[in-house]
Predict the structure.
Amino acid sequence: MIIPARNEARKIRDALQSVLQQDYVNAEFIVLNDRSTDNTREILARMAAEDGRLHIIDITELPSGWLGKNYALCQGAERASGELLLFTDADIVMDPGTLSKGVSYLQINNLDHLAAMPALKMPGFFLRSFCSAFGMFFSAYIRPWKAKDPASKKFIGIGAFNLVRTEAYKAAGTHRAIAMRPDDDIKLGKILKKAGYRQEMVFGTGLLQVEWYSSLGELIDGLMKNSFAGIEYSVVLSVAGGIAALLLNVWPFIAIFAVAGIARVIYVLVVFLMFLIIADANRFYGLPRWYAFAHPLSSLLFVYILWRSTVLALWTGGISWRGTHYPLRMLKANRI
């Protein structure tokens, strides 16, 4: 198990305690302390002293041409000795049977890569309801259910749980092939799929849990890192995608009050159908069905994040994440 950590003092103890309680035998636990400036290192040192299975690797410098997390993951993989690699995050809390169930599913289904979507915890109605809208946009763009189809070019990867056969990981190019990808988790899935390896995504509800973001500002900053990269730094896709999202997810609600006659009736039916679809989708995220009423506001926030990510990347010539600025020209060069 390979876990990168940078300034995760608030969450890492609970996450690692759940990791060390896994019932899977012969597991090794490698934690990469990626230039943390809080007391993450001190927490890791204490936990390693309490449990010798925890191997801590300190990363003090970031080589040119790498994003911090990607470099940490690559370093961890190079030090791992198992036939399987699990890439996960330092804020993921796991049920004790998570790893053994994941390995069993991968082996029974003859997969090379298994991605699992965690249950998302966020405080407050608005942040929680955003999970639903984000899930719908993510699914519509990525279509993760197609990843398991060998004939499809669709792919998937989830940062919380990417379980990969070591042989496949090395053959696909390792994290060196995606060294400057902010969306490293899903692009790991892409290089594996392009190399011809079998993959699938499952829902890890009840097995994996993460406090995704704890505030609106944290959510906006976190998603901005990946938004522009996720559409391959295309301004055209950013503008067109944002307009399409507004027309399909916000305008129908406005149109109910802006039009009359048969047009209004049609829009009422469209909105009613949307509510039914979103309410049903909410069960995958453990959300109340009535959270569907927040969908228009959540959609507005999604478009704001997408467009703000685009504008700031172009204005500043790159992205800034956890204290490091990454030039846009280098990010764009890492196309896969």
Summary: The two ends are 26 Å apart (CA to CA). The CA atoms of residues 76 and 293 lie 43 Å apart. The chain has a mean pLDDT of 93. The first strand starts at residue 2 and ends at 5.
